[in-house]
């Protein structure tokens, strides 16, 4: 992140992160397709696939080594005084809290709560559909075809969102995007609870992925624009670690609920969405009073 911060102007950061996210989606999709094809053509020769994988890592290293002079960043002052891990985390938290209070009118704690809820729901929705489609069909599609449609819609929405950083939604604040995401999760759960056409839920899911692909670059841009280089990487790693913990948690909880009762699962999903929406809409002034 310090390399991007140093080499890209502030007004281009959001566009750069959106494009980076788009490349990441394509790389994951292409890598999975290539891996399956190699396994099939090599008759499950995992050693061969591992060698090809190592070759790609070597190629990436050579490209980075060749362009190493362009990977510049600001020098970071190394403090001689020893600082405990707790003090470092406390300082990082204070810096990020100031940023969110100034830019988003919310405390860092509340923003983290909202993002944790959204990450938990977003990471679980795909798994819920695996169980939901066992008893529901989408225009007479088979189970495999319906799952493929869900994956295509999700990926398509995410890619489209990454490719359109300057549209109306790309100009919204990070908090506004979270509120819209929570609202769509409410609509998604409500549509499935009331047994609306599955296409209503699919449309909501596509829009959710579209907005989520704009939310994370917006968060990265917010940090890059306001944090100094010496704490930028640590701050981003701290947030990434916290957010990553919610993905398996959400999958586990909602998969268990879906196994018991899919309608109960959607009701809990709805409750989580409403909580996320309330947290994302509530603002506080700098004096700490609700507005």
TrEMBL record:
Q: Where are the transmembrane segments?
A: 22-40, 46-65, 111-132, 138-160, 238-258, 264-281
Choose one Gene Ontology CC annotation of this protein and give it.
plasma membrane
Membrane topology listed for this record:
Multi-pass membrane protein
Q: InterPro entries recorded for this chain?
A: MFS_trans_sf (IPR036259)
The record, for SUPFAM superfamilies, names:
MFS general substrate transporter (SSF103473)
User: Does the keyword section mention Secreted?
Assistant: no
Question: Taxonomically, which superkingdom?
Answer: Bacteria
Per the record, the major location class is: membrane
The subcellular location is: Cell membrane
Q: Which keywords does UniProt give here?
A: Cell membrane, Membrane, Transmembrane, Transmembrane helix
- PANTHER family attached here? INTEGRAL MEMBRANE EFFLUX PROTEIN-RELATED, MAJOR FACILITATOR SUPERFAMILY ASSOCIATED DOMAIN-CONTAINING PROTEIN
Q: What name appears for this protein in its UniProt entry? A: Putative membrane protein
Give the originating organism. Answer: Streptococcus mitis SK1073
């Amino acid at each position: 992140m310090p390399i991007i911060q140093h080499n890209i102007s502030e007004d281009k950061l959001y566009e750069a992160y959106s494009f980076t996210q788009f490349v990441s989606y394509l790389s994951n999709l292409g890598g999975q397709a290539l891996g399956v094809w190699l396994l099939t053509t090599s008759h499950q020769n995992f050693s061969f696939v591992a060698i090809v994988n190592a070759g790609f890592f070597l190629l990436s290293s050579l490209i980075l080594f060749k362009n190493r002079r362009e990977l510049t960043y600001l020098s970071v002052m190394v403090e001689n005084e020893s600082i405990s891990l707790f003090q470092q985390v406390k300082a990082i938290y204070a810096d990020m809290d100031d940023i969110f209070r100034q830019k988003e009118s919310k405390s860092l704690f509340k923003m983290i709560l909202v993002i944790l809820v959204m990450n938990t729901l977003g990471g679980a929705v795909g798994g819920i559909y695996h169980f939901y489609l066992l008893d529901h069909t989408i225009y007479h599609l088979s189970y495999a075809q319906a799952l493929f449609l869900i994956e295509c819609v999700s990926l398509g929405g995410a890619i489209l969102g990454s490719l359109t950083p300057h549209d109306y939604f790309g100009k919204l604040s990070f908090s506004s995007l979270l509120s819209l995401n929570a609202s769509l999760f409410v609509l998604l759960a409500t549509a499935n609870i009331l047994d609306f056409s599955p296409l209503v839920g699919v449309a909501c899911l596509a829009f959710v992925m579209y907005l989520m692909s704009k939310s994370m670059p917006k968060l990265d841009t917010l940090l890059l624009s306001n944090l100094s280089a010496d704490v930028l990487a640590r701050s981003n790693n701290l947030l990434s670690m916290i957010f990553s913990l919610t993905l398996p948690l959400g999958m586990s909880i909602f998969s268990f609920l879906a196994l018991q009762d899919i309608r109960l699962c959607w009701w809990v999903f709805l409750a989580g969405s409403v909580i996320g929406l309330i947290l994302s809409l509530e603002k506080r002034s700098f004096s700490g009073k609700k507005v």
